[in-house]
## 1
Amino acid sequence: MKSLLLATALILPAAAQAQAIPDAQRTAILSDVDGRAATLASTAKTIWDFSEVGYQEAKSSALLQSELKKGGFDVKAGVADIPTAFVASFRNGAGPVIAILAEYDALPGTAQTTDPTRNQIAGKAAGHACGHNLFGAASVTAALAIRDWMIANKVQGELRVYGTPAEEGGSGKVYMVRAGLFDDVSATLHWHPGSANIVSVGPSRANISGKFRFKGLSAHASASPERGRSALDGIEVMNVAVNMMREHVPSSIRIHYVITNGGEAPNVVPDFAESYYYVRDVDPALVKSVWARVVKASEGAALATETTVSNEITGGVYSMLASETLAKVMDRNLNAVGGVAYTPQETAWATELQKSLEVKRPLAIAGQVLPLGRDGDGGGSTDVSDISWVSPTIGLSTATWVPGTPAHSWQAVAASGMSIGAKGGVVAAKTLALTAADLFRSPETLAAAKAELLKARGPNFKYEAMLGNRKPALDYRKPMAAGK
């Protein structure tokens, strides 16, 4: 499987490069996005305020659907058995199908104001520490601008926006791929908030994530401990076993966990406990094999503690198989758009926030476009990867955060809710829109991207979701209570 990932580094013929649309049309698209910049910022801030976690993004999803409906898109909600997922379509005759992805889920435990210093919001359970509020708003902005261009220039084809919930561990896109919603898509475009402007073709990490639930017997922890069998002991023995196992897995493997339920009171032997595990690697097959060993560790822990254990895979994604063909088109457009320009006030804000960063990078990076990225896997995982195995796919990152800001941090939450974040969203919207327009006008590029994908994934490939045939894990963000 790993060898398939290396096959993406192809030398493509000159004919595979998209011809730019006329300058006048490019100017019109850029002006269209600029005219929607205030709405993009407002929408992003509203979703930032909602801060809804995976599969609970009802208000965020409804807001994006409403904007697309107003913009002339036909919207189908609740696709793939996910209430907050949707597909919005604008069809202008027969032609290629270009997809743009939109995310909007927040991360639990990351609430923060837009101050450049640590200032949690009391009573707020989640925050947009990965900037998905910007992701959704900018993608919709790009789609509305492309629709205007298609109508004005009588461009044939179909433009779709995929509203994709629960990217953070819930694998929402996987269920949409499994349902066949991307089978006819000619090219899929996406983006992500970040601290630099770059198009990347590097792989991500495949992963499997899930919950382990131990059940035991309650008893008074002091008066009659011999009558109890601690479910928490089961969790702890499992964790020890897995931590011992780290020495005996490939060094590229990543395993991490939290205990989501460890009991309620120290003087009660807990009869229920739950942990939440991730296993990651670039090679999907290796992830599956190590996950099987983690399951064995849980079973051994249950035997040792005279408890019982069950497990539920709540998420699972492939590694990214990004398209070199599409990357060259998107990279050219990102360079044409350029980076983010700070005002003096934004510079002062960014300088203050930067004091809290462990890694400090020049603020000028936000205004630059970095060379096409090919190295490394970035360490993270995304359910966009599953789409990349069935549809030619490419994405970019833009400087929505202060250079040096790590994802999933309070600093990312702060920037995602203010003007710096929105400016990065505008860069993304413009790049997505120009790239989609180029692809609509370049069937030879789409054909080359499809041929590249077929070669990279190898003969006889059949998509099978890493999470199997289970239904969407709509409650994965809710710890299971004892007795359930």
## 2
Amino acid sequence: MSLHGDLDKVSVPVLREQLVLLHGERVHTIVIDAAGLAFCDSSGLWVLIEHQRLVREHGGSLRLTGVHGVLRRVLDVTGLNAAFI
């Protein structure tokens, strides 16, 4: 899955819907390419954390690639980079 533009309260419902569909198909590894993201706010980070937890509960993983900019900084500052990268 690739993300583009902003991951914020407006776009989070679309991402959540797509992640729920993948989770429902019992996909064990979800890889999200964040190279196209220009911005990520707290609601975007929360949906990633929420689905990382759900996927892990079923023995899978959610990984981020192409992380840069604001998302990279937030993951570094919060210590969450190890959970996704």
## 3
Amino acid sequence: MWKAGLKWMFLIIGTTIGAGYASGRELWQFFGHESGLAIILFMIFFSICCLVIMKISYEKKSTDYLPVLKIIVGSKLTRVYDVMIFLYLFTTTVVMIAGSGATGQAFRFSYWWGVFFIVIALIVLFMKDISGLLAINQVILPLLLGGLLFILLLFTLDQNLNLSPNWHEQRNWTAAFPFTALNILPLIAVLGAIGSKVESKREIWIAALGSGLLLGVISYVYNSSLIQIADELLLYEIPLFAILKHYPFGMLIFMSIMLWFAIFTTAAAGVLGIVSRLKTIWHNSPVWLLATVILVLMIPLTTLGFSALISYIYPIYGILNLYVLTRLLLYPVWNKKG
């Protein structure tokens, strides 16, 4: 039970911690100063959302996100959100592939080497079906989270940071809503695909509460560290590097590799969501073949400057997702009425 619960917990965290989160850019964009309460609210909201999504997925024994989506948003809006989820997963996966190309350039490799490396790695991963993703999450994520926490706690001690928030200054508490909302669509897509594999409700509680607590603690310590060096962050595209400059070069190399794996696990979760949906249309097609076709279609799109496209798409997702977030948080109320 504990082992299975932790397996799902790492799947949730792997879906949520992309390069944006691990690098600190996403946290700084939403939180920053006066956000202690916002992060605590995010931790609570995130756990509730995971709990509800996994509970529905488990009860429906789903193998893709559509049955889960129907219950959350209702049959009338299902088609709209089905398209939204598909586009969200597609665009974010393209961005992750482009991110791998950019990471390759940082290490003096060709952009295309970075792109083809992640595409081939994803195809190999999906040759082992969903078990491949779960296995890599259980190896990589403890390293990524452990490394991140170690550096952040070391920085906290070195800088003598006070981690207790000033409760009189919490004007940014509303940031908890869009930050949680932005992370909901991939969770529905990925957790909707594993309903048939969850064996007990205890697994759900371990996964939901564990992932919420772990992400909450890391977010809080990370945000507190970034506040300490707020003046320097304008000079760094990746805020984490502003912290790492205080430490040996080996740490920078290790965390750069971990950042690539954060890109990889997010891309893998995106491909899983897309492929599980396509399997409902093409039942007999092997997972790895569908994954290959999707990834080959994505390669040319990595050159289109998706950062500009995402800057328009993400705010729209954030607003539309607030409805889904409200439905999930109020699920115990409206589900009883239903």
